């Protein structure tokens, strides 16, 4: 019996011995196949002049024409700039906040107080963007909104935050932080909980205070998780929050708020340019994959930690 046959026999024995485990795995595999891999057939549209009535088999093949159109599109250049700026703002401003929350919550001694704070900061995550957008549209309204009433009280002039290109990106970043910072802290809180308490006890015996313990024990202890989350965040650099921006923006702020996701939505459904919008989406996915690979390599080289 050859080596391949022996390996195949051992594999089949292993499968038969763990049929219950493979049965539990099957629904997840079916889900991935149906909703993740099967739709990839639609990528072909990016290389066609797609006709909705002819379908993929009957549409004309145009090769890389849609991608050439994308590269030479002034509108796409603005959209790409908006996407990168909003994503970078979210990374620079919002990524460190959940880490800080996890570090300081770990220093809270009273469990009731800690759980109360956690519950309060988690809750916004469970609200849909439709609800949150409606809430902030009301709060930021130039006529009667709470923020503008305060500005008037202080002697200033009302600001139309959601129709002014100078303020719209700031609103996007702030509302994203308000909704997701508490939820994102869960991963880091879990990582902190996994640190051995004996390290803190030993540090306390050596005379280290709470701040020193935080810097020398807690932060290094969660660094692997921080690197993992950062690499994943870099991979989604071109995902600036499509659902969020769709519920907040309007044509007056396309210049500062139109991102790749909303651009695909407008071109695909609004103008029915399915081939071009698919090409934009494929470009987005390819760049995201490339960023994850680059981020992982840089992390492995300089921090000696990586996903794979």
Automatic annotation (TrEMBL):
It comes from Cohnella cellulosilytica. Keywords: Cell membrane, Membrane, Transmembrane, Transmembrane helix, Transport. It is a multi-pass membrane protein. Pfam families: BPD_transp_1. Residues 80-295 form the ABC transmembrane type-1 domain. PROSITE patterns: ABC_TM1. Belongs to the binding-protein-dependent transport system permease family. InterPro entries: ABC_transporter_permease, MetI-like, MetI-like_sf. The keyword Transport applies. This is ABC transporter permease. It is found in: Cell membrane. The chain crosses the membrane at residues 21-47, 84-105, 126-147, 167-193, 214-234, 274-295. The keyword Transmembrane applies.
């Amino acid at each position: 019996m050859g080596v391949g046959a022996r390996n195949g026999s051992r594999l089949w024995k292993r499968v038969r011995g763990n049929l219950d485990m493979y049965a539990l795995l099957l629904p997840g595999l079916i889900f991935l196949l149906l909703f993740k891999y099967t739709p990839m057939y639609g990528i072909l549209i990016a290389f066609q002049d797609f006709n909705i009535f002819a379908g993929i088999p009957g549409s004309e093949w145009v090769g890389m024409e849609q991608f050439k159109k994308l590269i030479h599109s002034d509108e796409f250049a603005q959209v790409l700039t908006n996407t990168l700026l909003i994503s970078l703002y979210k990374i620079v401003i919002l990524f460190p906040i959940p880490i800080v929350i996890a570090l300081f919550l770990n220093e809270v001694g009273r469990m009731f107080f800690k759980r109360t704070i956690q519950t309060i900061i988690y809750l916004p995550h469970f609200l849909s963007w439709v609800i949150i957008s409606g809430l902030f549209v009301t709060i930021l309204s130039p006529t009667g909104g709470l923020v503008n009433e305060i500005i008037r009280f202080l002697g200033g002039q009302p600001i139309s935050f959601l129709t002014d290109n100078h303020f719209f990106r700031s609103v996007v970043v702030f509302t994203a932080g308000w909704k997701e910072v508490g939820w994102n802290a869960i991963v880091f809180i879990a990582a902190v909980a996994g640190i051995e308490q004996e390290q803190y006890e030993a540090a306390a015996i050596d005379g280290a205070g709470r701040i020193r313990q935080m810097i020398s024990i807690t932060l290094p202890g969660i660094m692997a998780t921080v690197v993992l989350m950062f690499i994943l965040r870099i991979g989604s650099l071109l995902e600036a929050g499509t659902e969020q921006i769709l519920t907040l923006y309007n044509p007056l702020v396309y210049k500062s708020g139109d991102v790749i996701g909303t651009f695909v939505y407008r071109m695909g459904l609004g103008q029915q340019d399915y081939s071009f919008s698919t090409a934009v989406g494929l470009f987005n996915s390819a760049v995201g994959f490339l960023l994850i690979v680059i981020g992982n390599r840089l992390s492995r080289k300089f921090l000696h930690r990586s996903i794979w």
